[in-house]
Amino acid sequence: MTAKRLLRFLGMAMVAGVLLAAGGMDRARAEYQGGIGGRWVLYDHHGNIVRDEDFRGRFMLIYFGYTFCPDVCPTGLSTMAEAMDILGDRGDVVQPMFISVDVLRDTPAHLADYVAYFHPRLLGLTGSQEMIDRLTEGYRVQYQIVREPGAEPDNYTIDHTASTYLMGPDGQFLVKFAHGIAPEDMAKRILEILNDFGA
Ligand code: NI
């Protein structure tokens, strides 16, 4: 690189730096665009109708699964609960959610007992098959009911995506945490994002 080109490069880098600093929150928002998510209407574990837009201005930390899940969901929800405990008061702007993909068995009453076991702030959500199918499509969550041959209709397991989604104050997708992440790492990343958003 010649001296002249180096100077021009440094000049551009400085301009970019100033633009980035001035971008502030806009930059944080632009960085987290994803095309995952969408509008939804569900029932919470109290039996109330809730909508995604009810959570605008807050962050949604979402785990998809079902209460009869033998070990994947309990592990994922324990991680989420522990991350929330690590965040402490900073997590007040984060709403942890468990959205059931088991519309047949996970009634609001059944969800209420289940979520209370993991965290006092965990919100259980369920809905009709149509609602859940639209929601999982928008969030690109895969699930598949697995029933052994000859089993009773309500005796099945569900293979499902086990990631945890963090959605931002505008309902936009921010980040997906892989199953098996340490609670400390999840909390650390969430805190970084909260700081980015000035939340
Ligand atoms: Ni599960």
Describe this structure in words.
The structure is a single chain. By secondary structure, the chain is α+β, with helices and mostly antiparallel strands. It has helices at 3-31, 72-87, 108-118, 129-139, 183-196; strands at 41-44, 49-51, 59-65, 94-100, 123-126, 143-146, 157-160, 164-167, 173-177. The strands form 2 sheets. It has a 7-stranded mixed β-sheet with strand order 2-1-5-4-3-8-9, with helices on one face. Helix 2 (72-87) crosses helix 5. The longest helix is centred in the N-terminal third of the chain and has 29 residues, at 3-31. The protein is globular, with a radius of gyration of 20 Å. The protein starts with a helix and ends with a helix. Mean pLDDT is 88; it is low at 14-23.
Brief descriptors of the model:
about 200 residues, alpha+beta, Glutaredoxin, 2 domains, seven-stranded mixed β-sheet, two-stranded antiparallel ribbon, 5 helices, 9 strands, about 40% helix, binds nickel (II) ion
**Tally of contiguous helical segments:** 5
Order of helices and strands: HEEEHEHEHEEEEH
Largest sheet: 7 strands, mixed
Largest sheet strand order: 2-1-5-4-3-8-9
**Mean pLDDT across residues:** 88
Topology of this protein?
Elements (H helix, E strand, L loop, with lengths): L2 H29 L9 E4 L4 E3 L7 E7 L6 H16 L6 E7 L7 H11 L4 E4 L2 H11 L3 E4 L10 E4 L3 E4 L5 E5 L5 H14 L3
Parallel strand pairs: 3-4, 4-5
Antiparallel strand pairs: 1-2, 1-5, 3-8, 6-7, 8-9
Helix pairs in contact: 2-5
The structure holds nickel (II) ion.
